[in-house]
Amino acid sequence: MAVWTKDELDKIEKAEELEIAALRKDDTLRKFVTIWAVRVGDDIYVRSARGPAGGWYRGVRARREGRIKAGGVDKAVAFADETDADINNQIDAAYRAKYTRYPQYVAPMVVPEIKATTIKIVPR
Question: Could you tell me the pTM of the whole model?
Answer without folding.
Answer: 0.96
